Amino acid sequence: MNEMDEIFKQIKKYSKIIIHRHQRPDPDAIGSQIGLAEILRASFPYKTIHVVGKHILGFDWIGEMDEIDNAEFDDALVIVVDTANAPRIDDRRFDQGAELIKIDHHPNDEPFGDIMWVEPEASSSSELIYDFYEKFSDELTLPKHAAHALLAGIIGDTGRYLYPATTSHTMRVVAGLMDLGADNAAIGQHENELSLPVARLSAYVYENLTILDHGAAYLKLTKDVLAKFDLKEAGTSGVVPIPGKIKDVKLWAIFVQQDDGTYRVRLRSKTDPINEVAKLHDGGGHPLASGAKAKDEAEINQIISELDQLTKDSSKGEN
């Protein structure tokens, strides 16, 4: 019995199922969470299905979280989607259920859970949820709301189908979701829209991005800068892809200052893997999209140096 079969067996076994995702969610975290929940609600109307985590106002259009008491975790199956390691799970009650399942598409560097289904080659966790539905489609129903949420996740994690993880299988999944009622154009437009503060911050990114000789780029967003644009740290996600639109940029880091003075580091690359650099700085993630932390200016400079060295080594290989 493979992981998908075992997960389906446990889903059918439990009368209560609680679905978690990671902190600071993106469309794939919310989309895979809501998508799975709506599939299970439509397929097993007699079961109690909850989605938990911090309420994120900007993702209401995908779905909203439930507020539940601790007692709901008694004898419940807990499923965590799109989360590479346990410390990042939103709602820390995830370990209070009877059994824990991990469904994810990040490298499984920090395993957790009684059952783990991890496919790093997948474009998104939302793609995996559709694959799960398709495998058991004789017994599962995928309603329009679930299709909407899953497509939002795929569009978000593929960068509007621009990232290398977008495969022919991904596009077949997209077609399947559109056939079930998901509006690709409307979802894409929704994810492409910027608030006025983020639009103004985008201009700041273009104006202040530092690009080194071999294609590494970086930008530091201090609390003072964010205050100038009337933004909090969470509002910076919309500008992360911007340096990748510049021809001369091969990989980049955006350092975002936190309330305690440390920095959250968003790392992206067009071709050269950057997740090993992330692991050196309390982070990790995909080869071309990772996150890390920097405690001070010295660590910021160290990360910049390591990224610069990556591009230098890559340039040597091209010659």
UniProtKB/TrEMBL annotation:
Q: Where is the DDH domain?
A: 16-154
Q: Name the Gene3D superfamilies for this protein.
A: 3.10.310.30, inorganic pyrophosphatase (n-terminal core)
* Top-rank taxon, per record: Bacteria
Q: Name one GO molecular function term.
A: nucleic acid binding
Q: Where is the DHHA1 domain?
A: 230-312
Checking Pfam families in the record gives: DHH (PF01368), DHHA1 (PF02272)
Protein's name in the database: DHH family protein
Upper classification of the source organism reads: Bacteria, Bacillati, Bacillota, Bacilli, Lactobacillales
